[in-house]
């Protein structure tokens, strides 16, 4: 038979052991939360940048498909809300479904909340919100005379400066759109 002292030792954790486990858990938690927060914030930046990139590519493809000028417009200058629509509305009535060139209004739109509300856009030049693609998929002058966006930076202002990742969407004159990290060296693939 076991003695009373042996049975007492097998009963469970002591207060000291429990305190040590809680202290170790608190240290691990305090290290993991900031890293996780940073990772989530930068993932939101990537998602927003990809949404804007997809919108720009959609506008280019639709311009070529419809043989019409199509615009990509940032609808809220600070967030990743956008729409793609025809810039030269044709026909006074409804579009002819048999003619993919006919286009009235919005082709597709995305609200920032559908993607991520946190990241913000900085568009160059200042005040630009629109990119117009011609029927050959090249960037054309905006019909309303507004400045054409040449680059769009996406970043999450909710993160500390040293943890924040910025992604840039660079627009080429030929209609190319590419996403890059401007903090990397020019020769870095």
Q: Helicity, in percent?
A: 25-40%
Query: Segments where pLDDT lies below 50 for 5+ residues?
Result: 90-101
How do the strands line up in the largest sheet? 3-2-1-5-6
- CA radius of gyration: 26 Å
Count of discrete alpha- or pi-helical segments spanning 4 or more residues: 3
**Proportion of β residues?**
15-25%
Give helix and strand order, one letter per element, not per position: HHEEEHEEEEEE
- Tell me, briefly, the overall form: elongated
**Mean pLDDT across all amino acids:** 81
How many runs of DSSP E, i.e. beta strands? 9
- Alpha-carbon distance between the two ends: 72 Å
What does this structure look like?
The chain is elongated. Residues 90-101 have low confidence and may be disordered. The termini are far apart. The protein has helices spanning 4-9, 15-66, 112-115, and strands at 70-74, 82-86, 106-110, 120-124, 130-133, 139-140, 151-155, 167-171, 177-180. It is α+β, with helices and mostly antiparallel strands and 189 residues long. Strand 8 (167-171) and strand 9 (177-180) form a beta hairpin. The strands form two sheets. A five-stranded antiparallel sheet has the order 3-2-1-5-6. It is built from three helices and nine strands, in the order H-H-E-E-E-H-E-E-E-E-E-E.
